[in-house]
Write a structure and sequence with these properties.
The complex is a heterodimer. By secondary structure, chain A is mainly beta. Chain A is built from no helices and 11 strands. Chain A starts with a strand and ends with a strand. In chain B, about 0% of the residues lie in helices and about 55% in strands. Chain B contains no helices and 11 strands. Classes of the chains: A mainly beta, B mainly beta.
């Protein structure tokens, strides 16, 4: 079983829809990261969080430490949000190493 | 802004060739990482380095080696390229602190024929 599980694997939405991507993990963590990868390869860090909730524009990330679960929400989705969203966790004592989920491929149709 | 630069976006090599992938970061980060990314498998750590001349094996080091002679540069070496090393290779860097954000390069898509 993977230590970081994401769902769904693939997601297709219509422009304007509210989107949720889920991430569950089975190890103790010091932080959880949400990353975005557009076609072509480059990966960008969206959020790093260890508790509660963070918001940036139309993106919201939440984490529940007790349930070992995080969600990434996108409000008023737009075709430019189409990308692969990757959840990753930092494990304490691992000198900055991340354990990655396999990613969620989001496609937003106009 | 942090910049992580990988020397090539696309590379085509022949089986048995020695391949060098170069990565340079400009933010004085202690940690540097090399990953490969394959469909359905996600990102997998090949090697990382937390200081000059220091290296640690990741999850899939077989067939690879690394070099970090200067803090800003981390090289991935395929001693004798094989077709199963065809993949997207991503370099990243971060500060030393556990849990810190990793900054990624644009990736190198390597094809071994």
């Amino acid at each position: 079983k993977n230590e970081v599980e994401q769902s769904p694997q693939n997601l297709t939405a219509q422009e304007g829809e509210f989107i949720t991507i889920n991430c569950s993990y089975s190890v103790g963590i010091s932080a959880l990261h949400w990353l975005q990868q557009h076609p072509g390869g480059g990966i960008v860090s969206l959020f790093m969080l260890s508790s509660g909730k963070k918001k940036h524009g139309r993106l919201i990330a939440t984490i529940n430490i007790q349930e070992k679960h995080s969600s990434l929400h996108i409000t008023a989705s737009h075709p430019r949000d189409s990308a692969v969203y990757i959840c990753a966790v930092s494990v304490g004592g691992s000198q900055g190493n991340l354990i990655f989920g396999k990613g969620t491929k989001l496609s937003v149709k106009p | 802004d942090v910049k992580v630069t990988q020397s090539s976006r696309y590379l085509v090599k022949r089986t048995g060739e020695k391949v060098f992938l170069e990565c340079v970061q400009d933010m004085d980060h202690e940690n540097m990482f090399w990953y490969r990314q394959d469909p359905g498998l996600g990102l997998r750590l090949i090697y990382f380095s937390y200081d000059v001349k220091m290296k640690e094996k990741g999850d899939i080091p077989e067939g690879y080696s690394v070099s970090r002679e200067k803090k800003e540069r981390f090289s991935l070496i395929l001693e004798s390229a094989s077709t199963n090393q065809t993949s997207m290779y991503l370099c990243a860097s971060s500060l030393w602190t556990v849990g810190n954000i990793q900054y990624f390069g644009a990736g190198t898509r390597l094809s071994v024929l």
